[in-house]
Specification:
alpha/beta; Rossmann fold; pyruvate-formate lyase- activating enzyme; 9-stranded mixed sheet; 24 strands; globular
Protein backbone atom coordinates (compact mmCIF):
# COMPACT_ATOMS: atom_id res chain seq x y z
CA UNK A 1 0.00 0.00 0.00
CA UNK A 2 1.60 3.24 -1.13
CA UNK A 3 1.27 5.89 1.57
CA UNK A 4 1.39 9.04 -0.54
CA UNK A 5 -0.38 10.49 -3.53
CA UNK A 6 1.19 12.57 -6.31
CA UNK A 7 1.26 16.32 -5.76
CA UNK A 8 -0.72 17.52 -8.77
CA UNK A 9 -0.10 21.27 -8.59
CA UNK A 10 2.00 23.56 -6.44
CA UNK A 11 1.82 27.32 -6.96
CA UNK A 12 4.32 29.70 -5.31
CA UNK A 13 3.95 33.44 -5.01
CA UNK A 14 4.87 36.24 -2.60
CA UNK A 15 2.06 37.90 -0.66
CA UNK A 16 2.72 40.57 1.99
CA UNK A 17 5.91 38.89 3.16
CA UNK A 18 4.46 35.39 3.06
CA UNK A 19 5.03 32.59 0.55
CA UNK A 20 1.73 31.20 -0.68
CA UNK A 21 1.47 27.58 -1.83
CA UNK A 22 -1.59 26.01 -3.40
CA UNK A 23 -1.58 22.24 -2.98
CA UNK A 24 -4.51 20.41 -4.51
CA UNK A 25 -3.48 16.88 -3.63
CA UNK A 26 -1.04 15.92 -0.92
CA UNK A 27 0.36 13.03 1.05
CA UNK A 28 -2.10 10.90 2.94
CA UNK A 29 -1.49 10.40 6.63
CA UNK A 30 -3.04 7.07 7.37
CA UNK A 31 -5.49 5.33 5.04
CA UNK A 32 -6.87 2.97 7.70
CA UNK A 33 -7.84 5.75 10.12
CA UNK A 34 -11.18 7.56 10.06
CA UNK A 35 -11.29 10.34 7.46
CA UNK A 36 -10.54 13.91 8.48
CA UNK A 37 -13.58 15.94 9.43
CA UNK A 38 -14.12 18.36 6.56
CA UNK A 39 -17.57 19.74 7.35
CA UNK A 40 -17.45 20.76 10.98
CA UNK A 41 -18.84 24.24 10.57
CA UNK A 42 -15.73 26.09 11.78
CA UNK A 43 -13.49 28.65 10.18
CA UNK A 44 -9.78 28.45 10.83
CA UNK A 45 -8.86 30.73 13.71
CA UNK A 46 -7.45 34.10 12.78
CA UNK A 47 -8.19 35.77 16.13
CA UNK A 48 -9.52 34.95 19.59
CA UNK A 49 -13.01 36.16 18.78
CA UNK A 50 -14.54 34.27 21.73
CA UNK A 51 -12.72 36.34 24.34
CA UNK A 52 -15.61 38.55 25.41
CA UNK A 53 -13.80 40.55 28.09
CA UNK A 54 -11.19 42.79 26.51
CA UNK A 55 -9.01 42.65 29.63
CA UNK A 56 -8.97 38.84 29.74
CA UNK A 57 -5.65 37.14 28.93
CA UNK A 58 -5.60 33.99 26.85
CA UNK A 59 -5.52 30.62 28.59
CA UNK A 60 -3.02 28.32 26.90
CA UNK A 61 -2.97 24.52 27.01
CA UNK A 62 0.07 22.58 25.77
CA UNK A 63 -0.36 18.88 25.02
CA UNK A 64 1.40 15.67 24.17
CA UNK A 65 -1.23 13.52 22.40
CA UNK A 66 -2.01 9.91 23.23
CA UNK A 67 0.40 7.64 21.39
CA UNK A 68 0.11 4.44 19.38
CA UNK A 69 2.35 1.48 18.72
CA UNK A 70 2.13 -1.52 16.41
CA UNK A 71 2.33 -5.09 17.70
CA UNK A 72 2.43 -8.07 15.34
CA UNK A 73 3.09 -11.78 15.48
CA UNK A 74 6.62 -13.08 14.95
CA UNK A 75 7.50 -14.83 11.69
CA UNK A 76 7.70 -18.62 12.03
CA UNK A 77 11.47 -18.48 11.51
CA UNK A 78 11.96 -16.38 14.66
CA UNK A 79 11.16 -17.23 18.24
CA UNK A 80 10.33 -13.66 19.16
CA UNK A 81 9.36 -10.34 17.62
CA UNK A 82 10.29 -6.99 19.18
CA UNK A 83 7.21 -4.89 19.78
CA UNK A 84 7.29 -1.21 18.96
CA UNK A 85 8.38 0.35 22.24
CA UNK A 86 6.09 2.40 24.46
CA UNK A 87 8.12 5.52 25.18
CA UNK A 88 7.41 8.68 27.13
CA UNK A 89 9.72 11.29 28.62
CA UNK A 90 9.56 14.72 30.17
CA UNK A 91 8.28 17.01 27.36
CA UNK A 92 11.08 19.55 27.74
CA UNK A 93 10.15 21.20 24.43
CA UNK A 94 6.67 21.98 25.76
CA UNK A 95 8.11 23.05 29.11
CA UNK A 96 10.44 25.44 27.32
CA UNK A 97 7.51 26.82 25.31
CA UNK A 98 5.27 26.95 28.38
CA UNK A 99 7.88 28.86 30.38
CA UNK A 100 8.16 31.53 27.67
CA UNK A 101 4.36 31.79 27.48
CA UNK A 102 4.01 31.97 31.25
CA UNK A 103 6.71 34.65 31.46
CA UNK A 104 4.64 36.69 28.98
CA UNK A 105 1.78 36.76 31.48
CA UNK A 106 -0.47 33.98 30.22
CA UNK A 107 -2.08 31.15 32.16
CA UNK A 108 -0.46 27.90 31.02
CA UNK A 109 -1.24 24.23 31.61
CA UNK A 110 0.63 21.17 30.27
CA UNK A 111 -0.99 17.77 29.73
CA UNK A 112 1.10 14.77 28.68
CA UNK A 113 -1.72 12.48 27.58
CA UNK A 114 0.64 9.64 26.62
CA UNK A 115 2.38 9.56 30.01
CA UNK A 116 -0.70 10.14 32.17
CA UNK A 117 -2.56 7.26 30.56
CA UNK A 118 0.50 5.08 29.96
CA UNK A 119 -1.16 1.89 31.25
CA UNK A 120 -4.41 2.56 29.41
CA UNK A 121 -3.81 0.56 26.22
CA UNK A 122 -6.56 -0.33 23.76
CA UNK A 123 -6.68 -1.87 20.28
CA UNK A 124 -7.29 1.01 17.87
CA UNK A 125 -6.88 -0.39 14.34
CA UNK A 126 -7.14 -4.21 14.24
CA UNK A 127 -6.00 -4.46 10.60
CA UNK A 128 -2.66 -2.91 11.56
CA UNK A 129 -2.23 -4.39 15.04
CA UNK A 130 -2.20 -0.79 16.26
CA UNK A 131 -2.71 -0.10 19.95
CA UNK A 132 -3.31 3.30 21.52
CA UNK A 133 -2.03 4.25 24.96
CA UNK A 134 -2.78 7.42 26.86
CA UNK A 135 -5.71 9.34 28.28
CA UNK A 136 -9.10 8.45 26.82
CA UNK A 137 -10.90 11.05 24.74
CA UNK A 138 -13.54 11.37 27.46
CA UNK A 139 -10.92 12.37 30.05
CA UNK A 140 -9.23 14.77 27.63
CA UNK A 141 -12.60 16.37 26.90
CA UNK A 142 -13.26 16.83 30.62
CA UNK A 143 -9.86 18.50 31.09
CA UNK A 144 -10.57 20.85 28.18
CA UNK A 145 -13.98 21.78 29.53
CA UNK A 146 -12.52 22.46 32.98
CA UNK A 147 -9.64 24.67 31.79
CA UNK A 148 -11.49 26.31 28.86
CA UNK A 149 -8.34 27.16 26.86
CA UNK A 150 -8.32 29.76 24.11
CA UNK A 151 -5.21 28.31 22.45
CA UNK A 152 -4.02 24.71 22.37
CA UNK A 153 -0.51 23.81 21.31
CA UNK A 154 0.11 20.18 20.33
CA UNK A 155 3.58 18.73 19.97
CA UNK A 156 4.07 16.88 16.68
CA UNK A 157 7.65 15.64 16.92
CA UNK A 158 7.37 12.10 15.59
CA UNK A 159 6.13 11.17 12.14
CA UNK A 160 4.81 7.82 13.40
CA UNK A 161 2.57 9.71 15.86
CA UNK A 162 1.14 12.11 13.29
CA UNK A 163 -2.23 10.30 13.17
CA UNK A 164 -2.61 10.91 16.91
CA UNK A 165 -1.79 14.60 16.57
CA UNK A 166 -4.36 14.86 13.83
CA UNK A 167 -6.99 13.05 15.92
CA UNK A 168 -6.32 15.32 18.91
CA UNK A 169 -6.63 18.49 16.80
CA UNK A 170 -9.88 17.10 15.45
CA UNK A 171 -11.14 16.43 19.00
CA UNK A 172 -10.30 19.98 20.08
CA UNK A 173 -12.45 21.42 17.29
CA UNK A 174 -15.29 19.06 18.20
CA UNK A 175 -15.20 20.32 21.78
CA UNK A 176 -15.08 23.99 20.78
CA UNK A 177 -14.65 25.01 17.16
CA UNK A 178 -13.34 28.44 18.24
CA UNK A 179 -10.28 27.04 20.01
CA UNK A 180 -7.15 27.97 18.07
CA UNK A 181 -5.08 24.83 17.50
CA UNK A 182 -1.33 25.27 16.96
CA UNK A 183 1.10 22.49 16.01
CA UNK A 184 4.85 22.49 16.62
CA UNK A 185 7.80 20.12 16.73
CA UNK A 186 10.02 18.39 14.19
CA UNK A 187 7.38 16.62 12.11
CA UNK A 188 5.00 19.59 11.98
CA UNK A 189 7.86 21.91 11.01
CA UNK A 190 9.26 19.77 8.21
CA UNK A 191 5.92 18.52 6.87
CA UNK A 192 3.87 21.66 7.55
CA UNK A 193 2.00 21.60 4.23
CA UNK A 194 0.58 18.15 4.82
CA UNK A 195 0.06 18.84 8.51
CA UNK A 196 -2.21 21.77 7.69
CA UNK A 197 -4.02 20.03 4.84
CA UNK A 198 -4.50 16.79 6.78
CA UNK A 199 -5.72 18.22 10.09
CA UNK A 200 -8.03 20.75 11.67
CA UNK A 201 -5.06 22.76 12.98
CA UNK A 202 -5.00 26.52 12.45
CA UNK A 203 -1.25 27.16 12.59
CA UNK A 204 2.14 25.47 12.56
CA UNK A 205 4.90 27.14 14.55
CA UNK A 206 8.09 26.20 12.73
CA UNK A 207 11.44 25.49 14.38
CA UNK A 208 12.18 27.10 17.74
CA UNK A 209 8.84 28.33 19.03
CA UNK A 210 9.74 30.24 22.20
CA UNK A 211 9.30 33.71 20.71
CA UNK A 212 7.06 32.75 17.79
CA UNK A 213 4.35 31.14 19.92
CA UNK A 214 4.11 34.12 22.28
CA UNK A 215 3.94 36.55 19.37
CA UNK A 216 1.22 34.42 17.77
CA UNK A 217 -0.93 34.55 20.92
CA UNK A 218 -0.51 38.32 21.14
CA UNK A 219 -1.45 38.63 17.48
CA UNK A 220 -4.58 36.55 18.04
CA UNK A 221 -5.59 38.66 21.04
CA UNK A 222 -5.10 41.92 19.16
CA UNK A 223 -6.56 40.66 15.87
CA UNK A 224 -3.44 41.73 14.00
CA UNK A 225 -2.06 40.57 10.64
CA UNK A 226 -0.63 37.08 11.17
CA UNK A 227 1.64 37.43 8.14
CA UNK A 228 3.85 39.81 10.09
CA UNK A 229 4.95 37.01 12.44
CA UNK A 230 8.09 35.18 11.44
CA UNK A 231 8.17 31.39 11.48
CA UNK A 232 4.56 30.31 11.07
CA UNK A 233 2.48 28.53 8.44
CA UNK A 234 -1.29 28.55 8.19
CA UNK A 235 -4.09 27.55 5.88
CA UNK A 236 -6.19 30.27 4.34
CA UNK A 237 -8.98 28.99 2.10
CA UNK A 238 -7.23 26.87 -0.55
CA UNK A 239 -3.75 28.18 0.21
CA UNK A 240 -0.90 27.41 2.57
CA UNK A 241 0.83 30.60 3.64
CA UNK A 242 4.36 30.53 5.07
CA UNK A 243 5.81 33.65 6.65
CA UNK A 244 9.42 34.76 6.67
CA UNK A 245 11.81 32.33 8.36
CA UNK A 246 12.65 33.12 11.98
CA UNK A 247 16.35 32.90 12.91
CA UNK A 248 17.40 30.65 15.76
CA UNK A 249 17.96 32.17 19.18
CA UNK A 250 21.55 33.44 19.17
CA UNK A 251 22.19 33.05 22.88
CA UNK A 252 20.27 30.15 24.37
CA UNK A 253 20.57 31.54 27.88
CA UNK A 254 18.26 34.44 27.06
CA UNK A 255 15.44 31.91 27.42
CA UNK A 256 16.26 31.64 31.13
CA UNK A 257 15.48 28.77 33.50
CA UNK A 258 12.79 26.31 32.39
CA UNK A 259 9.91 25.98 34.85
CA UNK A 260 9.57 22.24 35.56
CA UNK A 261 6.59 22.94 37.82
CA UNK A 262 4.53 22.85 34.63
CA UNK A 263 5.06 19.07 34.50
CA UNK A 264 4.21 16.26 36.88
CA UNK A 265 7.73 14.85 37.28
CA UNK A 266 6.39 11.81 39.15
CA UNK A 267 5.15 10.50 35.78
CA UNK A 268 8.77 10.04 34.64
CA UNK A 269 10.38 8.92 37.90
CA UNK A 270 9.82 5.16 37.98
CA UNK A 271 12.60 2.58 38.41
CA UNK A 272 13.11 2.35 34.63
CA UNK A 273 13.32 5.28 32.23
CA UNK A 274 13.57 5.41 28.44
CA UNK A 275 17.30 4.58 28.49
CA UNK A 276 17.39 1.73 31.00
CA UNK A 277 17.39 1.31 34.77
CA UNK A 278 17.68 4.29 37.05
CA UNK A 279 20.85 4.59 39.08
CA UNK A 280 19.14 5.87 42.23
CA UNK A 281 16.09 4.47 43.97
CA UNK A 282 15.11 7.81 45.48
CA UNK A 283 14.13 11.22 44.19
CA UNK A 284 12.67 12.24 40.89
CA UNK A 285 14.07 11.77 37.40
CA UNK A 286 13.68 14.12 34.45
CA UNK A 287 15.10 15.03 31.07
CA UNK A 288 17.43 18.01 30.72
CA UNK A 289 19.42 19.74 28.00
CA UNK A 290 22.60 21.77 28.47
CA UNK A 291 22.88 22.65 24.78
CA UNK A 292 20.73 22.34 21.67
CA UNK A 293 21.50 21.97 18.00
CA UNK A 294 24.12 20.09 16.05
CA UNK A 295 26.65 21.06 13.38
CA UNK A 296 27.21 17.55 12.00
CA UNK A 297 24.35 18.13 9.54
CA UNK A 298 23.55 14.46 8.93
CA UNK A 299 21.31 14.36 5.88
CA UNK A 300 18.81 11.99 7.49
CA UNK A 301 18.33 14.06 10.64
CA UNK A 302 15.77 16.76 11.55
CA UNK A 303 17.96 18.44 14.18
CA UNK A 304 20.01 20.78 11.93
CA UNK A 305 16.82 22.12 10.37
CA UNK A 306 14.56 22.26 13.42
CA UNK A 307 16.99 22.86 16.32
CA UNK A 308 19.68 24.67 14.39
CA UNK A 309 23.42 24.86 15.09
CA UNK A 310 25.07 23.98 18.39
CA UNK A 311 24.40 26.50 21.16
CA UNK A 312 25.17 25.93 24.83
CA UNK A 313 23.64 27.50 27.91
CA UNK A 314 25.71 29.89 29.96
CA UNK A 315 27.24 28.07 32.93
CA UNK A 316 25.33 30.39 35.30
CA UNK A 317 21.99 29.49 33.72
CA UNK A 318 22.75 25.76 33.83
CA UNK A 319 23.76 26.13 37.48
CA UNK A 320 20.43 27.87 38.22
CA UNK A 321 18.52 25.21 36.25
CA UNK A 322 20.10 22.43 38.29
CA UNK A 323 19.27 24.25 41.54
CA UNK A 324 15.68 24.57 40.31
CA UNK A 325 15.54 20.79 39.79
CA UNK A 326 17.21 19.87 43.08
CA UNK A 327 14.64 21.93 45.03
CA UNK A 328 11.95 19.87 43.29
CA UNK A 329 13.41 16.60 44.48
CA UNK A 330 15.27 15.60 41.30
CA UNK A 331 18.17 13.23 41.98
CA UNK A 332 18.75 11.98 38.44
CA UNK A 333 18.63 13.45 34.94
CA UNK A 334 18.67 12.17 31.36
CA UNK A 335 20.76 14.46 29.16
CA UNK A 336 19.07 15.01 25.80
CA UNK A 337 21.68 17.28 24.20
CA UNK A 338 21.76 16.98 20.42
CA UNK A 339 25.57 16.84 20.43
CA UNK A 340 27.10 16.96 23.91
CA UNK A 341 30.62 16.43 22.51
CA UNK A 342 30.54 19.21 19.91
CA UNK A 343 32.60 21.28 22.36
CA UNK A 344 34.60 19.05 24.76
CA UNK A 345 35.45 22.07 26.94
CA UNK A 346 31.71 22.60 27.47
CA UNK A 347 31.33 18.88 28.23
CA UNK A 348 33.88 19.25 31.04
CA UNK A 349 31.97 22.27 32.39
CA UNK A 350 28.72 20.32 32.34
CA UNK A 351 30.40 17.52 34.31
CA UNK A 352 31.68 20.04 36.85
CA UNK A 353 28.19 21.42 37.47
CA UNK A 354 26.50 18.00 37.63
CA UNK A 355 29.10 16.91 40.17
CA UNK A 356 28.54 20.09 42.19
CA UNK A 357 24.82 19.33 42.50
CA UNK A 358 25.31 15.57 43.07
CA UNK A 359 23.05 14.49 40.21
CA UNK A 360 23.25 10.99 38.76
CA UNK A 361 22.89 11.09 34.99
CA UNK A 362 22.84 9.22 31.73
CA UNK A 363 23.31 10.49 28.18
CA UNK A 364 20.55 9.55 25.73
CA UNK A 365 20.89 12.11 22.94
CA UNK A 366 23.67 10.10 21.29
CA UNK A 367 27.37 10.76 21.83
CA UNK A 368 29.29 11.60 18.66
CA UNK A 369 31.68 8.68 18.27
CA UNK A 370 33.82 10.62 15.77
CA UNK A 371 34.44 13.33 18.42
CA UNK A 372 35.63 10.77 20.97
CA UNK A 373 37.86 9.13 18.35
CA UNK A 374 39.47 12.50 17.50
CA UNK A 375 40.03 13.29 21.19
CA UNK A 376 41.54 9.86 21.73
CA UNK A 377 43.89 10.27 18.76
CA UNK A 378 44.96 13.72 19.96
CA UNK A 379 47.63 15.27 17.76
CA UNK A 380 47.56 12.19 15.53
CA UNK A 381 43.95 12.94 14.53
CA UNK A 382 44.96 15.12 11.58
CA UNK A 383 46.95 12.30 10.00
CA UNK A 384 44.44 9.54 10.70
CA UNK A 385 41.22 11.39 9.85
CA UNK A 386 42.60 13.27 6.84
CA UNK A 387 40.58 16.03 5.19
CA UNK A 388 37.53 15.39 7.38
CA UNK A 389 39.44 16.68 10.38
CA UNK A 390 39.88 20.08 8.72
CA UNK A 391 36.14 20.68 8.47
CA UNK A 392 34.45 23.30 10.70
CA UNK A 393 32.66 20.45 12.45
CA UNK A 394 35.93 19.61 14.25
CA UNK A 395 36.86 23.22 15.10
CA UNK A 396 36.08 23.08 18.83
CA UNK A 397 37.44 19.54 19.07
CA UNK A 398 40.73 20.75 17.57
CA UNK A 399 40.77 23.59 20.12
CA UNK A 400 40.21 21.13 22.98
CA UNK A 401 43.06 18.91 21.73
CA UNK A 402 45.34 21.95 21.57
CA UNK A 403 44.41 22.60 25.21
CA UNK A 404 45.44 19.05 26.10
CA UNK A 405 41.96 17.54 26.51
CA UNK A 406 41.80 13.77 25.91
CA UNK A 407 39.00 11.25 25.63
CA UNK A 408 40.27 9.56 28.78
CA UNK A 409 40.09 12.86 30.68
CA UNK A 410 36.52 13.61 29.57
CA UNK A 411 35.25 10.09 30.28
CA UNK A 412 36.86 10.16 33.73
CA UNK A 413 35.16 13.51 34.42
CA UNK A 414 31.84 12.07 33.28
CA UNK A 415 32.16 9.14 35.69
CA UNK A 416 33.18 11.36 38.61
CA UNK A 417 30.20 13.64 37.96
CA UNK A 418 27.67 10.81 38.24
CA UNK A 419 27.37 9.49 34.66
CA UNK A 420 26.44 5.80 34.65
CA UNK A 421 25.31 5.13 31.07
CA UNK A 422 25.77 6.54 27.55
CA UNK A 423 24.28 6.03 24.11
CA UNK A 424 27.11 5.83 21.59
CA UNK A 425 26.09 6.71 18.01
CA UNK A 426 28.12 4.16 16.02
CA UNK A 427 25.55 4.01 13.18
CA UNK A 428 27.21 1.77 10.57
CA UNK A 429 30.24 -0.27 9.57
CA UNK A 430 29.90 0.83 5.94
CA UNK A 431 31.76 3.88 4.66
CA UNK A 432 29.29 4.33 1.78
CA UNK A 433 26.40 4.51 4.23
CA UNK A 434 28.13 7.14 6.37
CA UNK A 435 29.19 9.09 3.28
CA UNK A 436 25.71 9.44 1.77
CA UNK A 437 24.27 10.38 5.16
CA UNK A 438 26.84 13.10 5.83
CA UNK A 439 28.25 11.29 8.86
CA UNK A 440 32.04 11.31 9.44
CA UNK A 441 33.63 8.06 8.26
CA UNK A 442 35.74 7.98 11.44
CA UNK A 443 32.91 5.92 12.98
CA UNK A 444 34.17 2.85 11.10
CA UNK A 445 37.59 2.87 12.88
CA UNK A 446 36.95 -0.30 14.83
CA UNK A 447 40.15 -0.54 16.89
CA UNK A 448 39.86 3.01 18.21
CA UNK A 449 36.15 2.50 18.90
CA UNK A 450 37.08 -0.54 21.00
CA UNK A 451 39.54 1.59 22.98
CA UNK A 452 36.81 4.17 23.61
CA UNK A 453 34.44 1.50 24.91
CA UNK A 454 37.18 0.13 27.19
CA UNK A 455 37.66 3.63 28.64
CA UNK A 456 33.97 3.86 29.48
CA UNK A 457 34.02 0.39 31.04
CA UNK A 458 37.16 1.21 33.03
CA UNK A 459 35.24 4.02 34.72
CA UNK A 460 32.07 2.00 35.31
CA UNK A 461 29.95 3.63 32.58
CA UNK A 462 27.62 1.34 30.63
CA UNK A 463 27.58 1.68 26.86
CA UNK A 464 24.63 1.17 24.53
CA UNK A 465 25.68 1.24 20.88
CA UNK A 466 23.27 2.63 18.31
CA UNK A 467 23.26 1.15 14.79
CA UNK A 468 21.24 1.93 11.66
CA UNK A 469 20.26 -0.65 9.03
CA UNK A 470 19.11 0.02 5.47
CA UNK A 471 20.82 3.25 4.38
CA UNK A 472 20.02 4.54 0.90
CA UNK A 473 20.75 7.79 -0.90
CA UNK A 474 22.45 9.58 -3.80
CA UNK A 475 26.23 9.24 -3.85
CA UNK A 476 28.95 11.73 -4.74
CA UNK A 477 29.27 10.47 -8.35
CA UNK A 478 25.70 11.32 -9.29
CA UNK A 479 24.56 7.75 -8.84
CA UNK A 480 22.81 6.11 -5.91
CA UNK A 481 23.64 3.71 -3.12
CA UNK A 482 21.36 1.37 -1.21
CA UNK A 483 22.52 -1.12 1.39
CA UNK A 484 22.38 -4.78 0.52
CA UNK A 485 21.93 -7.61 2.99
CA UNK A 486 25.71 -8.03 2.93
CA UNK A 487 26.12 -4.39 4.04
CA UNK A 488 23.65 -4.92 6.88
CA UNK A 489 25.57 -8.03 7.96
CA UNK A 490 28.78 -5.95 8.04
CA UNK A 491 27.14 -3.71 10.63
CA UNK A 492 25.83 -6.84 12.35
CA UNK A 493 29.42 -8.15 12.64
CA UNK A 494 30.73 -4.77 13.81
CA UNK A 495 28.15 -4.62 16.59
CA UNK A 496 28.93 -8.20 17.65
CA UNK A 497 32.65 -7.44 17.87
CA UNK A 498 31.98 -4.41 20.07
CA UNK A 499 29.69 -6.48 22.30
CA UNK A 500 32.34 -9.20 22.63
CA UNK A 501 34.78 -6.51 23.82
CA UNK A 502 32.53 -5.07 26.53
CA UNK A 503 29.71 -2.99 25.04
CA UNK A 504 26.59 -3.58 27.14
CA UNK A 505 23.82 -3.49 24.55
CA UNK A 506 23.59 -3.26 20.75
CA UNK A 507 20.54 -1.25 19.74
CA UNK A 508 19.76 -1.68 16.02
CA UNK A 509 17.26 0.56 14.26
CA UNK A 510 15.97 0.73 10.70
CA UNK A 511 16.62 3.79 8.56
CA UNK A 512 13.33 5.66 8.22
CA UNK A 513 12.75 8.60 5.86
CA UNK A 514 11.93 11.73 7.82
CA UNK A 515 9.83 14.16 5.75
CA UNK A 516 11.62 17.39 4.96
CA UNK A 517 15.15 16.09 5.44
CA UNK A 518 17.43 15.91 2.36
CA UNK A 519 17.87 12.14 2.51
CA UNK A 520 14.31 11.50 3.65
CA UNK A 521 12.75 13.23 0.67
CA UNK A 522 14.94 11.22 -1.72
CA UNK A 523 14.09 7.97 0.09
CA UNK A 524 10.33 8.52 -0.24
CA UNK A 525 10.45 6.81 -3.64
CA UNK A 526 11.01 3.48 -1.85
CA UNK A 527 8.32 3.87 0.85
CA UNK A 528 5.51 1.32 0.89
CA UNK A 529 3.81 2.05 4.24
CA UNK A 530 1.96 5.00 5.73
CA UNK A 531 3.08 7.43 8.43
CA UNK A 532 1.91 5.18 11.29
CA UNK A 533 4.82 2.84 10.46
CA UNK A 534 7.45 5.60 10.33
CA UNK A 535 9.28 4.37 13.41
CA UNK A 536 12.93 3.32 13.46
CA UNK A 537 11.72 0.00 14.87
CA UNK A 538 9.71 -0.80 11.74
CA UNK A 539 10.62 -1.06 8.08
CA UNK A 540 8.91 1.24 5.58
CA UNK A 541 11.18 1.13 2.51
CA UNK A 542 11.50 -1.60 -0.10
CA UNK A 543 15.08 -1.04 -1.27
CA UNK A 544 16.34 -2.61 -4.51
CA UNK A 545 17.81 -5.61 -2.67
CA UNK A 546 16.14 -5.39 0.75
CA UNK A 547 12.44 -5.25 1.50
CA UNK A 548 10.98 -3.54 4.56
CA UNK A 549 9.93 -6.91 5.97
CA UNK A 550 13.40 -8.38 5.47
CA UNK A 551 14.96 -5.44 7.30
CA UNK A 552 12.61 -6.09 10.22
CA UNK A 553 13.72 -9.73 10.32
CA UNK A 554 17.41 -8.73 10.23
CA UNK A 555 16.87 -6.24 13.05
CA UNK A 556 15.12 -8.87 15.16
CA UNK A 557 17.95 -11.33 14.52
CA UNK A 558 20.55 -8.73 15.45
CA UNK A 559 18.79 -7.94 18.72
CA UNK A 560 18.54 -11.59 19.72
CA UNK A 561 21.81 -13.06 18.44
CA UNK A 562 24.10 -10.27 19.62
CA UNK A 563 22.47 -9.37 22.93
CA UNK A 564 21.23 -12.81 23.97
CA UNK A 565 17.86 -14.04 25.24
CA UNK A 566 18.25 -12.65 28.77
CA UNK A 567 18.73 -9.03 27.67
CA UNK A 568 16.05 -9.26 25.01
CA UNK A 569 13.59 -10.67 27.55
CA UNK A 570 14.42 -7.77 29.89
CA UNK A 571 13.90 -5.29 27.04
CA UNK A 572 10.48 -6.78 26.25
CA UNK A 573 9.51 -6.84 29.94
CA UNK A 574 10.44 -3.23 30.72
CA UNK A 575 10.06 -1.61 27.30
CA UNK A 576 13.48 -0.04 27.79
CA UNK A 577 17.14 -0.75 27.15
CA UNK A 578 18.40 -3.65 29.32
CA UNK A 579 21.33 -1.72 30.86
Amino acid sequence: MLWYFIVMSVEHRKTAGAVTENLYVTRSSSPLRPPLLEDMGFSRGQSLTHMENGSERARVLLMVPPYTRIKRRAPESLGFWPEQTKRVGTPIGLLRLGTATQNAGYSVKVIDAAAEGFENETLLVPEMGMYRYGLADEEITKRIMDFRPHVIGITADYTCQWGNVRALADLMKRIDSKIVVVLGGAHATLDYKNALLDSAADYVVMGEGDRTFVELIKMLENREDNRQIRGIAFRENDFIRVTEERPFVSHLSELGVINYDLANLDLYSGPVHSGGKRQRDYGRCTCLFTSVGCNTRCRFCTIPIVNGPFRALDAEILDSQLRHLIVRGVSEVILEDDNLFHDPLWTLKVCELLKKHDVAWMEEGGLALYALIALHLGKQAAGVLGSEYKKPLFERIRKAIEDGVTAAQVIKAMAESGCYSVYLAVESANRNSLQISGKPEANTLAEITLEIIRLFKKHGIKVTGGFMLGFAGPDSTGGAFAESEEDVMNTFAYAKMLMDEGMDFANPFIVTPLPGTPLGEWQMQFVRRDYDFFSHELGVMDLPSLTAKRLEVLRARMLLEINGETKVAEMLRTGSWPV
